[in-house]
Write a structure and sequence with these properties.
Number of helices of chain B: 2
Oligomer: heterodimer
Order of helices and strands of chain A: HHHHHHHHHHHHHHHHHH
Structural class of chain A: mainly alpha
Number of strands of chain A: 0
Distance between the termini of chain B: 49 Å
Shape of chain B: elongated
Number of helices of chain A: 18
Radius of gyration of chain B: 14 Å
Largest sheet of chain A: none
Radius of gyration of chain A: 22 Å
Shape of chain A: globular
Order of helices and strands of chain B: HH
Strand content of chain A: under 5%
Largest interface: A-B, 57 and 41 residues
Helix content of chain B: 40-55%
Mean pLDDT of chain A: 91
Mean pLDDT of chain B: 75
Strand content of chain B: under 5%
Chain lengths: ~450, ~70
């Protein structure tokens, strides 16, 4: 039955994807973030929904009047250089046949993000993508949150199998990032029952974050909450609300959960953490040894590659860090570009907050930017201990905030009053940049 | 069964979002949106609460006339 529902949904939307590439972008995003084919049984599980939707969407995009390139600003250029460096890293990989499995997976994610860079250029598309984000991750938040509450928090909540967020830690990070996005939708939805539904989803999602038993996600949650409160207009109220939600849930969790989270205080005594430190040293030595393009994606997981760069004495394993994965896989240049893009996205959010402040018609942009920063903070902190450097849930925020800033600046430029005696203004930029076909 | 119901909601939600985006694609950054997923924009067609949505239809409620 579930297979039938999924096939029917994709089947009905596929023609729409062909005539409206922006719908294809949203469906592709939904499939990428949610992996719904992992939630069905039988024939539906083996079907290549993502590939079909991607091909149709890309074809529709090329045949349409939609922009084929992102707007050429610094952030977009940095992204394109980053993509080229990904290819270079694979071409110069130490063990190319091993790294190719990961390159293939990652480059598909980045093609989707490149599409977003070109197409996520209207208020409705950005808002729609945030809904897709919330629906895709809210699904696991509701499921995992209910599971956590019913089982008393004694088990690990996990994500969809064979996906980037299958691991409990990765699911925890994904849900920490989803919470501020859901809050943005709550702040902006005109319909009360949607707002109520979003609040209930957020509570269950918070329960699920705790239910993943992930220490990294808990740290990300703390960082995200801190920035959320800092960016809030009513800081005391926000602090009280978060405390009223979080404290009962934490008290609900079992002793085993408390004991596990207590180990954060003494990382030097935790074998898991010390193993990660060793993996980080391997990544560092790889970065030093091959600073321009790195050793190739996940090459540092192989013992012979680790020995090649360290001289032996280190146990090869996953690097468990978005920063060290990029360093080992793509070198220092790749890491510099990665950090530049992250910083640029944060800066876009800051700029949007500043420019949209006090303007009622741009409150949506101000709220989006205000919620994007806690999302980025959660990713930057929790991602330091997880291998989610190419997860779409982070990368989709890059074009979303880039275009939000462009839309805000275009609107402000178009509505700027003309002073008497001032020279004639340049023609105002169109309110909707690169709108779709008529 | 719970998973199936959630999956159904997710699929319906995807369709709703897709329709809404196409319907509001030409709305400018400072203009009000309409329909089921309308934002709380100033100058929008009034609070899109349940009663009004029920009278005007779900996904594309028309704006109220001024005055």
């Amino acid at each position: 039955m579930r297979s039938f529902v999924l096939i029917l949904t994709i089947g009905c939307l596929l023609p729409a994807c062909f005539f409206y590439p922006q719908i294809g972008m949203l469906v592709w995003g939904w499939l990428t973030l949610m992996s719904p084919h992992q939630e069905v049984f039988g024939f539906g599980q083996g079907l290549q929904f993502n590939l079909v939707v991607a091909v149709v969407t890309l074809l529709a995009w090329l045949l349409s009047v939609e922009p084929k390139l992102p707007p050429m600003n610094g952030l977009a250029l940095a992204f394109i250089v980053f993509l080229l460096l990904m290819v270079a890293s694979q071409l110069t990989a130490i063990v190319p046949e091993y790294s190719y499995t990961y390159f293939d997976r990652f480059i598909r994610e980045m093609v989707f993000i490149f599409l977003c860079m070109a197409l996520l250029n209207s208020k409705a598309r950005i808002h729609g993508m945030m809904w897709i984000y919330a629906i895709a991750l809210g699904y696991y938040g509701i499921k995992g949150g209910a599971f956590t509450l019913v089982t008393g928090g004694g088990y690990h909540a996990r994500g969809p199998a064979n996906s980037m967020i299958a691991d409990n830690n990765h699911l925890g990070l994904a849900l920490v990032m989803a919470l501020p996005v859901m809050n943005y939708l709550r702040m902006q939805s005109a319909r009360r029952f949607l707002r109520v539904g979003i609040v209930l989803t957020m509570i269950l999602t918070l329960a699920c974050v705790l239910g993943t038993q992930s220490r990294g996600a808990l740290l990300g949650l703390v960082a995200m909450s801190g920035v959320l409160i800092w960016r809030s207009r009513h800081r005391t109220l926000s602090l009280v609300v978060i405390a009223l939600l979080a404290v009962p849930l934490i008290l609900f969790m079992p002793e085993t959960w408390m004991a596990r989270m207590e180990t954060i205080r003494n990382p030097g005594e935790d074998a898991s953490f010390m193993g990660r430190v060793q993996a980080w040293w391997i990544a560092f030595y790889i970065g030093i040894g091959d600073p321009l393009t790195g050793a190739g994606f996940r090459a540092g997981y192989l013992q012979n590659v680790a020995d090649l760069f360290t001289g032996g004495g280190y146990d090869a394993r996953a690097h468990h860090s978005i920063y060290f994965e990029i360093l080992a896989g793509m070198g220092f240049i790749g890491l510099a570009l990665y950090l530049l893009i992250m910083f640029g996205t944060w800066r876009n959010a800051a700029r949007v907050r500043r420019q949209a402040k006090g303007r009622a018609e741009l409150k949506w942009a101000h709220d989006l930017a205000s919620m994007a920063q806690p999302t980025l903070a959660g990713y930057a902190v929790a991602g330091a201990s997880m291998s989610l450097e190419f997860w779409s849930g982070y990368w989709v925020l890059v074009p979303a905030l880039m275009h939000t800033r462009r839309l805000v600046e275009a609107h402000l430029g178009a509505t700027q009053p003309v002073r008497p005696g001032a020279p004639p203004a340049r023609p105002a930029a169109p309110a909707v940049l690169g709108a779709g076909r008529s | 069964m719970v998973t199936g119901i959630l999956l159904l909601f997710a699929c319906v939600g995807l369709g709703v979002v897709a329709f809404w985006v196409v319907h509001n694609d030409r709305v400018g950054p400072g203009e009000p949106t309409r329909g089921f997923l309308a934002l709380r924009d100033p100058g929008a067609a009034g609070p899109a609460d349940d009663a009004r949505a029920g009278k005007n239809g779900g996904l594309a409620a028309p704006p109220r006339s001024p005055g």
